[in-house]
Amino acid sequence: MSQDTIIKVAGLSKNFGGVKAVNGVSFELKRGEALGIIGPNGSGKSTMINLITGFVKPSSGKVFYNGRDITGLSPDKIVNLGIARSFQMAKPFYNMPVYKNLIIPLFSPRARKLAGGRHGDRDESAIHLLEEVGFERDSHIPYKPAGSLPHGYVKRLELARCLALEPDVIILDELFSGMSMSEVAGILPFLERLRDEGKTLIMVEHRLRELFRVVDKAICLNFGEKIAEGAPEEVVQNEEVKKSYLGSEVVSGA
Amino acid sequence: MRIQAGFRKERIDRGIKARTDDIFAIASCREILYLVGPRFLLIAALLIFPLLKSITGIYWQNVLMITATIALLALSWDLLHSVGLVSLGQALFFGAGAYATGYLNSKFGWSPVLAIPAATLLGALFSTALLYPVLRLRGIYFGLITFAVPMLLMRIIEATKILGGTEGISGLTPLPGITITLYIIIAVTLVCVYGYQRLFETDYGLVFKAIRDNDRSVIAAGFNIQLFKAQAVFLAALPATFAGAFLTHHYQFVGLPAFAMDYSVLPMASVIIGGPGSFIGAMLGAFIVVPLSEFLRTFGTLRIVIYSLVLLVFVVGLPQGLFHYLKRKYDQFERLVPIEEVEK
Amino acid sequence: MTSSVLIFGLVNSAILMLTALGFSLIFGLSGVANLAHGAIYLSSGYVAWIFLNSLGLPYFLAVPLTIVAAGLLGAAIYWLVIMRVRGLGLSEVIATFAVGVAILEFFRWMGFVTYEFNLPVLIKGSLDISGVSVDYQRLVIVGVGILMAALLWLFAHHTKIGLALRGMAQDEYTALSLGIDSDWAAALSMALGSAIAALAAVVTLPLGIISINLGYEVLIMALAVTVLGGLESITGLVVGALLLGFARTVTGTYFDPKWMEVVYLIALVLVLAVKPSGLFGKYKELEERV
After folding, report:
1. What number is the average pLDDT over the span B153-173?
2. What is the reported pLDDT for C285?
3. Whether C86 contacts chain B with CB within 8 A
4. Is B196 within the bounds of a domain?
5. At a CB cut-off of 8 Å and minimum separation 6, what does A38 contact?
6. Chain A within 8 Å of B203 (Cβ-Cβ)?
7. How many domains does chain B have?
8. Inter-chain contact C109–B312, Cβ cutoff 8 Å?
9. Taking the domains of chain A in order of start, what are their residue ranges?
10. Substitution target from B82, B219, B226, B231 for chain A, most A beta carbons within 10 A
11. Among B94, B95, B97, B78, CA closest to B86
């Protein structure tokens, strides 16, 4: 394993009562790379993420982070090592104001160690983070109850929650789903900037055109198995990938 | 020239509250009074009542004692509820504190000054350790465990005859006179309300609330929620075990009734009636529930029926509880403001 | 000794299963944890007693009437109370618990507490099985238990209503979109569960006198069996009842009857702590409990 490999997945498998959700997937990711995971619905993309982040324990296989075996660690420990993730079904903390939603990750052991800060400072950092992901600073939106946010804002809040953890690796599970065209267009430059700043990104997406603006490498899963890996343009040209997406417009459009 | 053209109604809190609930802009003494008045009245009433022994009689002083006990248990219930844990067995905490002080006092002769704080801590540690393995359970399943555990402990004490068996332990050191006793427990209750409210204003307390809303996201923010829930249980156990230890010395006896269902049902009823989530509501609820059940004593066992029906009406008809209802009404108080018109 | 443990273990298991059946049915089909179960069970006993003794109805008329009355009571509880707090987990629990306590304590206040309150057995006399004397009523209980388990299995898997209710339990919204009325389905499951509780009361109560505290005990028994066996599977319920029934009997015979009650509670706590989905639970249930 070379020095700058940050994540290495080796032969990862997960069975759910006989169904092989993920089957012997391996890949490596260098520090600062951006990886896209694509594949049709039910191909094991979300399970893959749950396996890397410890939310689901693998049936077999290993996950290494900075050369360290993190397989089977509890999800909170993995987060504190620097791997943050978003959820596909993003749910805010409904009963809190939006900016208080970010206090939780800002208060996490990792964020406290890296950024320090006291009670009041965190409110300020929260507002600042919200502004970064596209909340209007001087509007009332950050102070509204999170339960009243429209879906696009919830997704951006989810992204802000990842960033608040000051992670080295950011894993985004279908961040764009449910966002409008203009919202995606608004968030793309920000993701590109994250990549250029040297964050390692893993993105699961269905919207390939937008995804490929950010990532410089892609893998495609189908029925839990890796069927292609390489530069994004190569992957979509792969015959097997085309076949797995048969009838879908996404690939031809990309 | 301005002339007065009549009056219009305006909410009193208009202009006081700015943007959020905790930023106030106060302009006059009247507004200060409007804000602190209710709190002040509540505390004053609590502090004066114990002095009125000659008017109220010892009976109602004792009722206040039990009310404060249930209020502490209700506060404890409310804290657990705020973390998303529903307890159907507050008697566990009460009994743990009661038996701990009983044992320390009778076996080692510790005076209440030492035994009660020690029992509060020991009882809370014991209950937390006991519930730790089941903290990952959600909703009603956690409730079922808490429902079963006090009964289980009761049966075990009965069967093994430890800690006095069915006889219990009697002859414990009494507390000093009723007035001082009352002041102590009222002070503890008020400190507890204030402490819990402050706790939930901190970032640490915010994590508790977040766990109730969406525990998965709290894990994804790097928190070990099992550990956090354990801390919540410990913090919630403290007032309840204290109540158990304190009442034990008041009665100078501890026995199986320490795990009785009353200590589980009454606090829950208090919070439901008073209104969960505010802690003040829990306390207010206790001050309605316990005296009410005393008034209903003339009905014999029918009072439990009336009681359950009252609870039912609240659960179905006013699920947010009395406190939130009253607070809303108080916020809606209006005053008449003169309308001035400018004439040319 | 061994044969007596075997026989009475079986009888105890049948009692446990019968008492738990109604509760488990409601929980499995409509997701309502009906904490008024014990009260429905016990009030059925009193209603049967009133039919038999105060109104002087014959046994074979009084029993079906009791079962129908309990079914109506269950449906009424659903329409009047549970429907208004449906989906609010905590409120549901508290509301049904309050209904249960109100009913039970009402009977206590009415003075239904003395030894004269007992129900007649179906067949008098007893039978000698390998040196152990077993009265016929206990055999009736085992028979009714087996019959009910079989009938319910058939109902849930092979009738239209049963399948509709099970669909409801799995995914309420999908079932709604398929034209199944959720309130109607839940009220029906409440009625069915309560009717089964009444049947259980009529066959098991003749073994002793009817006492108010039994109402609370039955609730705990039902909870323990249901949690142990896992929801929605009748196999789980049967095995849960057998395990607890035999554990109880063995404890009572070889140790001390005092420990018999502790067995449930320990089983309940252990199962929830170690395997929250119950012994036969499925993956979906685990997600809901943990």
Report:
1. 89
2. 43
3. no
4. yes
5. A45, A204, A205, A206, A208, A211, A218, A219, A220, A221, A235, A241
6. yes
7. 1
8. no
9. 1-82+169-178+186-254, 89-167
10. B219
11. B78
Q: What is the band of A3 on the pLDDT scale with cuts at 50, 70, 90?
A: low
Which residues 229-288 on chain C approach chain B with CB closer than 8 angstroms? Answer: 256, 258-259, 261-262, 265-266, 268-269, 272-273, 276, 288
Q: What is the pLDDT of residues B128-161, one digit of tens each?
A: 999 998 888 876 778 878 888 898 898 889 888 8
pLDDT (tens digit per residue) in C177-232:
777 777 888 899 899 999 999 999 999 988 888 888 888 888 888 888 888 876 66
- The residue assigned the tokens 């089983």 is C267
Q: Would you give the DSSP letter of residue B15? A: T
In this complex, the residue of C85, C98, C268 whose CB is nearest that of residue B311 is C98
Can you count the helices (H) and strands (E) in chain B? 13, 4
Distance spanning both ends of chain C, measured CA to CA: 42
Among B204, B213, B220, beta carbon nearest to A75? B220
**Residue B229, domain member (yes or no):** yes
Count of residues making up chain C: 290
Contact A195, A27 (CB under 8 A): no
Nearest Cα of chain B lies from the Cα of A94 at a distance, in angstroms, of: 6
- Residue whose C-alpha is closest to residue B183's, from B57, B315, B49: B49
Long-range contacts of C120-128 (CB under 8 A, 24+ apart): C120/C52, C120/C59, C120/C206, C121/C206, C122/C59, C122/C203, C122/C206
Q: Quick check: is B226 in a domain?
A: yes
**pLDDT tens-digit readout, C102-137:** 999 888 888 877 777 778 887 788 888 777 788 888
Domain span holding position B199: 63-336
Chains with 3 or more CB pairs closer than 8 angstroms to B? A, C
DSSP string of B71-140, one letter each residue:
HHHHHHHHHHHHTTPPPS-THHHHHHHHHHHHHHHHHH---HHHHHHHHHHHHHHHHHHHHGGGTT--HH
Q: Which CATH class is domain A1-82+169-178+186-254?
A: alpha beta
CATH code for the domain in which residue B95 is found:
1.10.3470
The pLDDT value recorded for residue B121 is 97
Tokens of A73: 């660690």
Tell me which long-range contacts A207-210 makes (C-beta under 8 A, separation of at least 24).
Answer: A207/A176, A207/A177, A207/A250, A208/A36, A208/A38, A208/A232, A208/A236, A208/A250, A208/A251, A208/A253, A208/A254, A209/A253, A209/A254, A210/A176, A210/A184
Mean pLDDT computed over every residue of chain C: 84
Residue B27 within any structural domain of the chain: no
Q: Please state, in angstroms and rounded to a whole number, the distance separating the CA atoms of residues A124 and A132.
A: 13
